[in-house]
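dumping this here before i forget
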Amino acid sequence: MGTVVQGVDNQIDSERRADRKAWALILAVVLFTLLPYLFGAWLSLGRKYFWINHNIDDNCVYLAWIRQAWEGHFLFENRFTTDPQPRLSTNLFFWAIGTIARWTGLPVLFLFHAARMALGIVWLWTLWLLYKRLLPNGARMPALWLACVSAGLGWLFWRDAGIDAPIDTWQVEAFTFLSLYLNPLFVVGTLLMTACIYNLWRAVQERRWVYTVRAGIWALLVGNIHSYDVIQVAGAWLAFLVVSSFVQRRFDRQRWLMGLTAGAIGLPTVAYQYWLYRVDPIFRHRADVPTSAPPLWHVLAGYAPLLILAVAAVWVTVRERRHREEPFLLLFCWAVVGIGLQYLPRIFSAAGIHLPMNFERKMVMGAHLPLCALAGWGLWLLVRHLPARRALLVTALVIALTTPSNVRWLIRDAHNLIRNMANTGMHRAYMEPEEWEAIQWLARNTNPEEAVLTFPSFGVFVPPFAGNRVYVGHWGETPQFAERLRETLRFLDARRSDEERYELLRRARVKYIVAFTPELQGWFGVPLRDFVAQPLRGTEVVFQNRLIVILKVL
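structure:
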């Protein structure tokens, strides 16, 4: 009896040690993601730094929603267009940040990154709890390490990096580290996906409906916060139920009922998003902006080291006749669905069926998690018969070899900060004090209903930091973005006639014009009209400094 008790105590101690190691890794990785931003702040040299190192335009969309919550709105509008629209959409995550900012007076950008880091810790801990239930002891920590730091072979193609390259050079949501570092929306979305799978697994293993209800609540939230993630969770769980039923040659009615119950609880937010897609043309435009799935080899190269290790896990598991075990089946089904789901609209299109899912490549978000689990499992299987020190050395070396793309990403971001250039190629990493002064003037002296006409590389900051709508501001949020960009550039071009300007003002529904002095000429490639030296009839100058002129349309 004493031997049994001692064995249980040893197992508990071992699990506690593993938990402490997991906590240390999680905290270290999340805190590390703050360092590039501190470097950016150190480089600011008196310029305005927005604490955004990648995809400034998309983050400004999130911050515009937060600002509307800060103003007291629960339902949001798209402020990157002046087109008429209903105020029908919301995002509970960003609403919560904006509401907390209003209640506490804390800076929005502080709360933005605090949410990213705090929820990043919760996400990785939830992932650790899931790995503890699905993986053998020796595979858990390698899997968590791979989830935290791994990428693929994109660093070999970095000179040609762009969308036509392995996904670890450009697709943030496809990888855990990049999501933790760059995007709080991806963090909370993948956290909810992980929590949903975790609770569904506990529900079917422990036959407890309380976990079914919890999974449904997480699905309800993800349906509002990051809607298309529901598709991967539903697809992965459905595939698992089908494959498990086939392998075990029995139909477990309770399991299916639990899955359907969780889906029913989560359905209202997904249904609302679909209704919104049907009734709101501005929302429909946003949803219909195509983000096509990349060629399959780009995905495979982006996940290459993980796929090699995962194949080793599959091969050994099949050889040892353990492939019928349910943890393996769940991870395998989730990984296949996570990678393959983005190609489903294309397959249906070939059959003449159109699916309203233009967000193809975004559906890969979350696939990194089961891949890392299988890869950690495969790595452990490959080293388990080695002496302990050698096994640890090989494991560390293999994990280190999966990180160069992420390291290269950090180097690129640092280089962009030094050059004052964002990855979009259209925005700068820093704003001059005079430009920020103009933003603050708009925030203090205008109302959100009074729209602004300005160049989008400046206008993208107006909705989140001044609160106004803009005629053109974001490539995906602004309808007819390319045409409105050309119109705005013609408006600012000194060679154009005033009649062209008046025609645009009649259509744009704007109250203010933000123009630029010739000192900013290098950013435009056209000679800029000096609206102070050459006044535009029907407007008056209401703000002016060295770089910016704000005109009010009378």
